[in-house]
Specification:
Layout lengths: L1 E2 L8 E2 L3 E5 L2 E5 L8 H8 L18 E8 L4 E8 L12 E3 L1 H4 L8 H8 L9 H16 L15 H6 L12 H8 L22 H7 L14 H4 L8 E3 L2 E4 L4 H13 L5 E4 L16 E4 L9 E4 L2 E5 L4 H9 L8 H14 L5 H4 L4 H11 L4 H7 L4 E6 L2 E6 H6 L7 E9 L11 E12 L11 E12 L4 E12 L7 E2 L1 H7 L2 E2 L2 H12 L11 H16 L6 H7 L14 H7 L15 E3 L17 H6 L15 E7 L5 E7 L2 H4 L3 E5 L11 E3 L2 E3 L6 E2 L5 E7 L2 H10 L1 E5 L9 H6 L3 E2 L13 H7 L2 E10 L11 E7 L3 E6 L4 H12 L6 E5 L14 H14 L3 E4 L2 H7 L6 E9 L5 E13 L8 H9 L7 E9 L13 H19 L3 H7 L4 H8 L11 H11 L2 H14 L3 E15 L3 E7 L5 E5 L8 H14 L13 E3 L2 E2 L14 H31 ...
Parallel strand pairs: 3-7, 9-11, 10-11, 22-48, 23-36, 34-35, 38-39, 42-43, 47-48
Antiparallel strand pairs: 1-2, 3-4, 5-6, 5-7, 8-9, 12-13, 13-16, 14-15, 14-16, 17-18, 18-19, 19-20, 19-21, 23-29, 24-28, 24-30, 25-29, 26-27, 31-39, 32-37, 33-34, 33-36, 35-44, 37-38, 40-46, 41-42, 41-45, 46-47
Helix pairs in contact: 3-6, 10-11, 16-17, 17-18, 17-43, 26-27, 29-30, 30-31, 35-36, 36-37, 41-42
Keywords: 2Fe-2S, FAD, Flavoprotein, Iron, Iron-sulfur, Metal-binding, Molybdenum, Oxidoreductase
Family: Belongs to the xanthine dehydrogenase family.
Cofactor: FAD; [2Fe-2S] cluster; Mo-molybdopterin
Length: about 1400
């Protein structure tokens, strides 16, 4: 029951919610208004392609296409939305399309899905359905336009639109390049030769051939039909009542006011006003509301009108619609200057959030969040700069006030309604008779971790100025200006009125600009507690400088070109003045990525091994049909769990209480250590265990204390969030740093067999040195896994005291053993099943075990199925992530740069339990030995602290070690004033020194390919020429500096014992089980190829098609034991070898039969052979445990990378212009898979070195929460040009078919980006020193911290670099004519 649309009194009418999903009709009479579209789709339909990645609208995993029918214009509006934020009640009358609706295995795949697969653009596949829907929407909307018809097979989408179509979608696996190529393959203006490696064609083939092989796209058939039954449905809003909650959709302002009055009278009811509900992504609401009021159906709030006075935009108009409106060209009465202002407003708005958030977020909602909750809004800043007006209705009182006044008022009262805004048309006040040229200048700015959006800014700004060129003053006068700043850590956006007044009617010169900047510095001051306050202030200064500096000191140009009879046109057609003015007229929209090059040599010795086969399951991943743990339908009576965790680092737990409001919402039980029938163990390794739940003492903030079990995941999460823990902290002193651990001798023991041996005599090496650096210090922080699928498990009780657990993990064997131990049951009572994992990177190894164990314990105790999908915030708090550490080093070296000795003292923060941390010394020293240090000594201590346990993360210890090595190289080069590349080169190993440092794992001399890679990369990347060009660029540019760096890797890996099982079924199809888990790394694909190759050695008819007959099935801990870990980059090859051994056994069993049949029949087909084998009882199932030979179980991987970056000295923003990689894969088992691993690992490394901050509070509790504050790389932060060559060296006869690993080593190469940033900063510091400031010599031995974020980079370039430059300019003899070029 609900209130009907036309009457909000007591009259009620039965209304139902009607909508369609993939053409299927849904009609609901009761819905809890707080239910999101995502919750409904995942729990009430069979469509599971929509994934919960963040719950904030920040990742794109849950994106769907929302289609609305417009009966007035008889058209359908299609746009993407985040289903995790969209409330179900708001989709009344809409049609929803998920990835399954775009295309699927039953009805046929869409070309998007086929191209994503063919371009090798899906790895773990968890993000892929969302990517497909985002691109589908872009294609749909482009093809509906009146643009010219494209070439056959292409869409009307432009290259820039294709790139940006997935700009809001996050991917942790691929590195984005193949995703972007798949999108660009649809673009009308694409050069097909620029598209990357794919399975459709080879480089050099003609465009006609390429097009014939691409899955065809027909832009005339792109539009999907809107369901007829929805066209007939009522278009009025929905009014429903369910479980005491109401959803209202008023159709007029009068109805809205009556509702607001009713809520006011019934004090105590909780009301929520909604349009797109996107605010929920930022302000996580735990309180449930009684009344929801949807404003979408009120015509007065949806108004858009334009005339010569300006543009009116209603409060419920979406940001996307506002952008579209502001960009419209054909509007009568609006002058060109105003149009340019509107376009720049639109361009700035396009950097807010993501497309699928902008499609549902409203202009009014954004302003209300800024006014009521101090949301760091971009829209308020840019509208403030253009004197926007705000329309407010309170009761009968109608107000039209400035946006500035609106923001400064107390929070808008509940019965007030924001109706809309008006943006005035701006025009310069040109007076032809005065012989002055007057121009309106407008620009907006934002500094954010991601250039094109999906990140809150550190600061935003917008400036509107009217300037005049006049004959008498021979320069530019700033008549008036509006300077707006926001998002810098203040309650709301502001106008810098004191600076405006100072600049008003001023003749612009260096002195005026300097004074204005000093005034601004005292105006833009972030509030206390805001991160990087000085940086944010420097951004404000930088943006004002960037805006005004082109207008200064150009009187010589003016006098030269000035002429009488000025006719109103700008008179300086060939001058710098005109260039400077024209920059304000430009709308900048560069493409994100240039063409990339992939050089791959195919290996045809062991076909189909060595072929670039499409990843197994890629197409069903694209369609969303691939099943992950959380996609498994919930069994009957299934319950859901959520962890309650400690917020104190060391405390006695006296009690846990659930707040009363939580108890009514379906909570079934609270499970703690007291409920454990066996051992209190949540995870275990050879180094020790970690408790499932804290007993009386909690040992870190983030430790599990209990599990809330409820009827839904939402209710469990809310109850856990509202839980209150009673602590006693008396006489307890936590250890919260490695320094404290060192002082208190708090260490984990490292087994002697895992502790590496030193190399050479350190004292002797130091004595031989010409120079020494003593006790230099480095510090490294942590990194979060950010797998797209968070930790998840489902436990189902079975007969006879048994339990089946579905777990997303990298080591089912360890999960299995831990559960059995915790429940106190024999191992054969537990079965752990893992099919695929939505991203792991080490985080789904040990850290996945407690999640599965907690579900198993709850299911065992309650005799009901229990599942858990850990929310992103909790996952981030508990994950631990990469090991932080403190490094102290002393190094001796010759004047040539040759290092003679290195000593390292390293303190590794392991957290509260051992996990895998004792292996860190072993992991670190291997990659660190990539250089010939002469002598190498070290003391590595693994510290026990009261922080979450750290665990393995892709290249654990190895990426830190590589950074340490490069930091030392940089330090030595700076100390000697040498080029760092020459210092690296002189310290590369000879084969003799390689043998000394690596002993048995060095291999044969022919296997040492690094010297040839090093030289080849210099040639292929034009390293030396680019280094010279870069020097010229840096001489010519004051505010942009470039750096380039070339780094090598020597990365040891080790094979482990791995099981395999191959069974041939009666029809000739083949089933394979392996110990390795498919994480997205292509393990199943390589295993399938190996199976097909090894069985084809039987040499009978049809074996060339065996690949299609192979299926790799999920891991089952009772079916295949001793599975071990999927980690360390080598599980794919060891799984392949296990399978090859099985196949050899089967071929041997079949050979005698085959020979007999060939004698009888002349030739025989595979299917006939297998059928005969069944009839003669040949055993067609073989299993084995591959145990690598001790002499060859360890080997070295080689590679090198060159990266070039550009640093903006005004903001600290770094752009990676180009990266070139050469990586030795041996004879690649699958070059397409290995290429994806190389690119994806490298980009994950970029995250570590540039972007990803994982901060904690003073108690060690993680404060980075989800996508708002944790920034992984996106499509706009990867290298603009990304070239990769896979070296097919083939010198590795002891490897699995001569192959080598590719999963982790390339991540370490991302240090090249960090080193290039350092080189650019060095140039900036030299320039800064040249401007004076009292320092005799620039400090070029500075440490660039990790990650090198924008504030870090800007600080090293000089937070006061603009002031220093202006002071220098004013003080120099050329001050009057020097100018201020940006």
């Amino acid at each position: 029951m609900g209130h009907q649309g036309q009457n909000t009194n007591s009259e009620k009418t039965k209304q139902t919610l009607v909508f369609a999903v993939n053409g299927q009709r849904f009609e609901l009479s009761e819905v809890n208004p707080s239910t999101t579209l995502l919750e409904f789709l995942r729990s009430q339909t069979s469509f599971k392609s929509v994934k919960l990645g963040c719950g904030e609208g920040g990742c794109g995993a849950c994106v769907v296409l929302l289609s609305k029918y417009d009966p007035v214009h008889d058209k359908v509006d299609d746009c993407t939305v985040s289903s995790c934020l969209t409330l179900l009640c708001s989709v009344n009358g809409c049609s929803i399309t998920t990835a399954e609706g775009v295309g699927n295995s039953k009805d046929g795949f869409h070309p998007i899905q086929e191209r994503f697969s063919g371009f090798h653009a899906s790895q773990c596949g968890y993000c892929t359905p969302g990517m497909c829907v985002s691109l589908y929407s872009a294609l749909l909307n482009a093809d509906k336009t009146s643009r010219p018809e494209p070439r056959p097979g292409f869409s009307k989408l432009t290259l820039s639109e294709a790139e940006k179509s997935i700009a809001g979608n996050l991917c942790r696996c691929t590195g984005y390049r193949p995703l972007v190529d798949a999108c660009k393959s649809f673009a009308v203006d694409v050069d097909m030769e620029d598209l990357g490696f794919n399975s459709f064609w080879r480089k050099g083939e003609s465009d006609e051939v390429k097009l014939s092989r691409l899955p065809p796209h027909n832009c005339n058939k792109a539009t999907r039909g809107f369901p007829e039954f929805l066209k007939m449905a009522t278009k009025s809003g929905l009014n429903m009542e369910s479980e005491g909650c109401h959803w209202y959709s008023p159709c007029s302002l009068e109805q809205l006011q009556r509702l607001l009055h009713m809520v006011e009278v019934n004090d105590g009811t909780s009301m929520k006003i909604v349009i797109g509900n996107t605010g929920m992504g930022y302000y996580k609401e735990l309180d449930l509301h009684n009344k929801y009021i949807d404003l979408s159906y009120i015509p007065e709030l949806a108004i858009i009108s334009k005339d010569q006075t300006g543009i009116k935009i209603g409060a419920s108009v979406t940001i996307s619609k506002a952008i579209e409106t502001l960009r419209e060209e054909n509007v009568d009465g609006i002058n060109q200057e105003a149009k340019l202002v509107f376009k720049k407003l639109a361009n700035h708005m396009e950097k807010i959030a993501t497309g699928f958030v902008r499609n549902s977020a409203s202009i009014g909602g954004n302003l209300i969040m800024a006014q009521r909750k101090h949301f760091p809004s971009d829209i308020t800043t840019i509208l403030l700069s253009v004197d926007a007006m705000v329309d407010i209705l309170t009761g009968d009182r109608h107000e039209n006030i400035t946006l500035e006044e609106f923001l400064e008022r107390p929070p808008l009262v509940s019965n007030s309604v924001l109706l809309g805004i008006k943006i005035p048309c701006w025009k310069s006040s040109t007076d032809v008779s005065s012989k002055t040229y007057t121009k309106l200048l407008y620009e907006t700015y934002r500094a954010a971790p991601r250039p094109i959006g999906n990140a809150l800014p550190y600061l935003n700004a917008a400036f509107l100025a009217e300037v005049s060129l006049c004959k008498n003053s021979a320069g530019i006068v700033l008549n008036n200006c509006r300077l707006a700043f926001g998002a810098y850590g203040t309650k709301h956006s502001i106008r810098a009125r004191n600076v405006e007044e100072f600049l008003s009617a001023k003749f612009l010169d260096v002195g005026v600009l300097y004074e204005a900047i000093e005034l601004l510095e005292s105006t833009v001051i972030p509030e206390e507690g805001v991160a990087s306050p000085a940086y944010r202030t420097s951004l404000a200064i930088g943006f004002l400088f960037e805006f005004l500096s082109p207008l200064i000191n150009i009187h010589s140009e003016i006098s030269r070109f000035w002429f009488d009879g000025y006719n109103g046109n700008f008179p300086f057609n060939d001058s710098k003045v005109k260039q400077n003015f024209d920059q304000f007229n430009q709308i900048k929209s560069p493409t994100l990525l240039s063409s990339a090059k992939q050089v791959i040599q195919l290996n045809e010795d062991y076909r189909p091994v060595g072929e670039p086969t499409i990843k197994s399951g890629a197409t069903i991943q694209s369609s969303g049909e691939a099943v992950y743990v959380d996609d498994i339908p919930s069994p009957k009576d299934c319950l859901h769990g959520a962890f309650i965790y400690s917020t104190e680092p060391l405390a006695w737990v006296k009690g846990i209480k659930l707040k009363p409001e939580a108890s009514v919402d379906g909570v079934s039980a609270l499970i703690s250590f007291k409920d454990i029938p066996g051992e209190n163990v949540g995870a275990q390794t050879i180094f020790g265990g970690e408790p499932l739940y804290a007993d009386e003492l909690t040992q870190c903030a983030g430790q599990r204390i209990a599990l809330v079990v409820a009827d839904t995941q939402k209710n469990a999460d809310i109850a856990a969030e509202l839980a209150v823990i009673d602590y006693d902290k008396k006489n307890l002193e936590p250890i919260l740093s490695v320094e404290e651990a060192f002082e208190r001798c708090s260490f984990f023991e490292v087994p002697p067999f895992l502790y590496p041996e030193p190399v050479g005599d350190f004292s002797k090496g130091m004595a031989e040195a010409d120079h020494q650096i003593e006790s230099a210090v480095l510090k490294l922080g942590s990194q979060y896994y950010f797998y797209m699928e968070t930790q998840t498990a489902l436990a189902v009780p079975d007969e006879d005291n048994c339990i089946v657990v579905y777990s997303s993990n990298q080591c089912p064997e360890f999960v299995h053993d831990t559960i059995a131990k915790c429940l106190g049951v024999p191992g054969h009572n537990v079965r752990v099943i893992t099919r695929r994992v939505g991203g792991g990177f080490g985080g789904k190894a040990i850290k996945a075990i407690p999640v599965a164990t907690a579900c198993a314990l709850a299911a065992y105790k309650l005799h009901r199925p229990v599942r858990m999908y850990v929310n992103r915030k909790t996952d981030m708090i508990m994950a631990g992530g990469r090991h932080p550490m403190k490094i102290t080093y002393s190094v001796g070296f010759k004047g040539s740069g040759k290092i003679t000795a290195l000593k390292l003292d390293i303190l590794v923060d392991a957290g509260m339990s051992a996990d895998i941390s004792p292996i860190m010394p072993h992991n670190m020293i291997g990659p660190l030995k990539k250089y010939d240090w002469g002598a190498l000594a070290f003391d590595i201590k693994v510290c026990k602290t009261n922080l979450p346990s750290r665990s393995a993360m892709r290249a654990p210890g190895e990426v830190q070690a590589s950074f340490i090595a490069e930091a030392i190289m940089e330090h030595v080069a700076s100390a000697l004033a040498l080029e760092v590349d020459s210092v690296r080169s002189i310290n590369l190993h000879t084969y003799e020194s390689l043998e000394l440092f690596y002993k048995t794992s060095a291999g044969e001399p022919s296997e040492y390919t690094l010297p040839s890679i090093w030289n080849k990369l210099a040639m292929s990347s034009n390293f030396y020429r680019r280094t010279e060009l870069l020097k010229e660029f840096n001489r010519s540019n004051k505010w942009r500096k470039r750096g380039i760096s070339r780094v090598p890797i020597v990365h040891p890996v080790m094979l482990r014992a791995t099981p395999g099982k191959v069974s041939i079924l009666r029809d000739g199809s083949i089933v394979v089980e392996v110990g390795g888990i498919e994480l997205g790394q292509g393990l199943w694909t390589k295993v399938k190829q190996m199976t097909a190759y090894a069985l084809s050695l039987i040499q009978c008819g049809g074996t060339e098609e065996l690949l299609e007959k192979v299926r790799v099935i999920q891991a089952d801990s009772l079916s295949l034991i001793q599975g071990g870990f999927t980690s360390g980059s080598t599980t794919s090859e060891s799984s392949c070898e296990a399978v090859r051994l099985c196949c050899n056994i089967l071929v041997e069993r079949l050979t005698a039969l085959k020979e007999r049949l060939v004698e009888q029949m002349g030739s025989i087909k595979w299917e006939t052979l297998i059928l005969q084998a069944y009839m003669t009882s040949v055993n067609l199932s073989a299993s084995t445990l591959y145990i690598p030979d001790f002499s060859s179980m360890q080997y070295l991987n080689y590679g090198a990378a060159v990266s070039e970056v550009e640093v903006n000295l005004l903001t600290g923003q770094t752009t990676i212009l180009q990266t070139d990689i050469i990586y030795d894969c041996g004879k690649s088992l699958n070059p397409a898979v290995d290429l994806g691993q190389i690119e994806g690992a490298f980009v994950q490394g970029i995250g570590f070195f540039m972007l990803e901050e994982y901060p904690t509070n003073s108690k060690g509790l993680v404060v980075a929460e989800g996508t708002w504050s944790y920034k992984i790389p996106t499509v706009d932060t990867i290298p603009k040009r990304f070239n990769v060559e896979i070296l097919n060296s083939g010198h590795h006869k002891n490897r699995v078919l001569s192959s080598k690993a590719s999963g982790e080593p390339p991540l370490v190469l991302a240090v090249s980006v960090h080193c290039a940033i350092r080189a650019a900063i060095k140039e900036a510091r030299l320039q800064l020193h040249s401007w004076g400031g009292g320092v005799d010599e620039p400090d070029l031995t500075f440490q660039l911290q990790v990650p090198a974020t924008m504030p870090v980079v800007k600080e090293l370039c000089g937070l006061d670099n603009i002031q220093r430059f202006l002071q220098w300019t004013l003080g120099s003899k050329q001050g009057e004519s020097a100018g201020c070029p940006v």
